[in-house]
Design brief:
Length: 301
C-alpha cells in the first residue's frame, strides 16, 4: 500500500493538470498546495525505513524526482544582483492593519525601487503617502491599490478587472508607466477576488474571471517590458492564473509562501514580468497584515 501511495503522489505531481476542474475546481485546489505533496514523500520515506521496505524506497524515487523537477530549482540560491536589476516589493497591507506607518517603514527598509500595495483604505492612505514620500516621491493610487516608485510615473489609470456579479464600487487594478534609467516599464498592480475552500470544493470562479481580464490587458500592452505585482489569490501552479502565467515569467528561485502570515501555506502574492526575468523572490518580516510582504529581483532584458 505505501508503494501505491508513492506512485499516486508521483502521478498527482506529474499530471496535476489532468485532475479535472469541473467538480469543485479540484484541480485548482490541488495546485494551490502542490508543493506540500513533498510532505507525503517524507512521511512515506519514514514509513519505509520503519518497515525496512526496499520496494517502497524504490517507489519513492518517482515522487521525489517529480517534486525536484517542479520545485527543486526554487530552493537554489539566487544569482548575484546585477547592475540592471530592479528590486520590487509586493504587499497586501490589510484593511485592518493597526500600524500602517510601521508597515510602510518596514517595506522601505528593503530599499526596493517599486512598492505595490493592496487593501489601501481611506484612513490609512495618508499615512502610507507621508511615510513613503521621502524615498518614493512618485506614487499613484486607484481605488484600493497603489504603486510607489523611486522613478517618475506617467499614464496612471484604473484597470478594470471587476468580474461580473460584483455590485458597487470595486477598483482593484492599476496600470502606470515607470520611467527607469533602463527605459519605460508598464507596471500593473492588481488585487484579484478572494477564493474560498468549501465543502463543495474551491470557490474561485470570480478570481478566474478577473485573472482573464487582467491577462487580456497585459496581452494588449504596447510597452515592451511589463511587471505585474499583486495579491492574485492564487499560486503560479494554479491553472486559474493561466491567463497570466502563460504570458509572463514567474520567479525562478524562492518559494516565498506569503499567506496566511501566522502560518504561511502558499504564495498568493506574486511578482511576474514580460521581457524581464524574475530572478528570485523572498518574504520580508511580518507587518500588521495577514499577508507577508514579498520582495522580488527583476533583471531587465
Amino acid at each position: 500500500m505505501p508503494a501505491a501511495f508513492a506512485v499516486l503522489t508521483a502521478g498527482l505531481l506529474t499530471f496535476h493538470r489532468a485532475v479535472p476542474n469541473s467538480a469543485g475546481r479540484l484541480g485548482s485546489l490541488l495546485e494551490a498546495f502542490l508543493p506540500w505533496l513533498g510532505l507525503a514523500v517524507v512521511a512515506l520515506f519514514g514509513l519505509a525505513l520503519l518497515r525496512r521496505s526496499a520496494t517502497v524506497l524504490v517507489a519513492l524515487l518517482l515522487p521525489t524526482a517529480a517534486w525536484m523537477y517542479l520545485f527543486g530549482g526554487l530552493l537554489l540560491p539566487g544569482g548575484k544582483p546585477g547592475a540592471h536589476d530592479l528590486v520590487v516589493v509586493q504587499h497586501n497591507v490589510s484593511d485592518e492593519n493597526p500600524d500602517p506607518a510601521g508597515t510602510a517603514l518596514a517595506l522601505a527598509d528593503a530599499e526596493p525601487d517599486l512598492i505595490a500595495l493592496q487593501e489601501l483604505v481611506p484612513p490609512a492612505l495618508p499615512v502610507y503617502e507621508k511615510t513613503l514620500a521621502p524615498a518614493y516621491p512618485h506614487h499613484a493610487v486607484r481605488g484600493t491599490v497603489g504603486l510607489w516608485s523611486k522613478y517618475p510615473l506617467t499614464g496612471a489609470r484604473l484597470l478594470d478587472v471587476k468580474p461580473r456579479g460584483v455590485a458597487g464600487p470595486w477598483s482593484r487594478g492599476l496600470r502606470a508607466v515607470v520611467h527607469t534609467p533602463r527605459g519605460e516599464i508598464a507596471v500593473y498592480v492588481a488585487h484579484l477576488p478572494s477564493v474560498r475552500v468549501r465543502a463543495s470544493g474551491l470557490a474561485s470562479s470570480r478570481r478566474d474571471e478577473s485573472a482573464g481580464l487582467l491577462g487580456k490587458a497585459v496581452a494588449a500592452e504596447k510597452v515592451k517590458t511589463v511587471i505585474l505585482l499583486g495579491d492574485l489569490n492564487g499560486t503560479v501552479d494554479d491553472r486559474g492564473l493561466a491567463p497570466l502565467t502563460s504570458r509572463l515569467n514567474v520567479a525562478e528561485r524562492g518559494l516565498a509562501f506569503s499567506f496566511p502570515a501566522a502560518f504561511p501555506l502558499a504564495r498568493i502574492d506574486q511578482v511576474m514580468a514580460r521581457s524581464a526575468t524574475v530572478g528570485d523572490i523572498r518574504t520580508l518580516p511580518a507587518t500588521g497584515s495577514d499577508h507577508l510582504p514579498v520582495a522580488g529581483r527583476i533583471t531587465l532584458h
